[in-house]
Amino acid sequence: MKTILITGGTGLIGSALSQFLAGKGCQVIVLSRHPKQANGNISYAAWDPAKQTIDNAAIQKADYIIHLAGAGVNDKRWSKKRKREILDSRVQSGELIVKALTEIPNQVKAVVSISGIAWYGDDAKRKGKPAFTETDTADDDFLGQVCVQWEAAIQPVESLGKRLVIFRCPPVFAKEGGAFKEFKRPVQFGIAAILGSGRQVISWVHIEDTVRMFWFAIENENIQGVYNTASPQPITNKDFTLQLAQKMRGKNFIPMYVPAWALKLALGGVSVEVLKSATISSEKITQAGFQFLYPSVDAALDNL
Description:
By secondary structure, this protein is α/β, with parallel strands linked by helices. The protein has one domain (3-172, 205-232, 279-303): NAD(P)-binding Rossmann-like Domain (Rossmann fold). It contains eleven helices and 14 strands. It has helices at 12-23, 56-61, 80-103, 142-154, 178-187, 207-219, 237-249, 260-267, 271-275, 283-287, 297-303; strands at 3-7, 27-32, 42-48, 53-54, 64-67, 110-116, 163-169, 172-173, 191-195, 201-202, 205-206, 225-228, 235-236, 254-258. Helix 1 (12-23) crosses helix 6 (207-219) and helix 7 (237-249) runs parallel beside helix 11 (297-303). The two termini are 32 Å apart.
């Protein structure tokens, strides 16, 4: 029986992943600043990345670590304080894992850490080149550089002899929340809200494929390094919005363009991500043997 330690285990991905792993018979330990009572195969242990403290026993029990911790990028407007929270929550938590694995005797075989496709920037900078791949350099904007420091913070676990996998994840579509819930909101009122020009490409992934990919990384020792987790079929914002509206309301909706200036006014810096076009390659993870259950938006929407 595997014991898997999860940071960020109460978020959208972490909650689904904890249940998935528990269903596989794993013992799951969720690191939290406010540990809860154990529930079946899922228990909780204390940590505080800002104070660099962690439950030593949790590290000693773990066979694998899945690192998901980080303040929500789209939860609030990007004030100077919020930008610092977004960066620090990722860097400090990664540094704490490295520190713990260095100082505490352990049997951890691998660390699987999340990152983001914000690493890559906008398609416009590609000038007609194919989709972004894992070897492309990081963008120089705020989130691109957050991703650089995020990945760098966890990288030293490799020097400790641990297998390291980094998943660059796009927006995750799930019933419980996240980007998909926001896309659905106006459609519930009969409005298909097309953002900006609508031509920007959305790279995305279904929550079920996301959690399966983490399990795939744990189960396969040949999986190492950086992988994109985006589905094989990205889609434009306009096409996605119209497909979603048709699935939800048939013909009973009105397409409406939301101009870029209005999004910038409402969302501030976050609007950069909403309006960005990002075509991300999934070739590396599929060549490694992973099969998507929901490769297309049509299949994902039927499920969700």
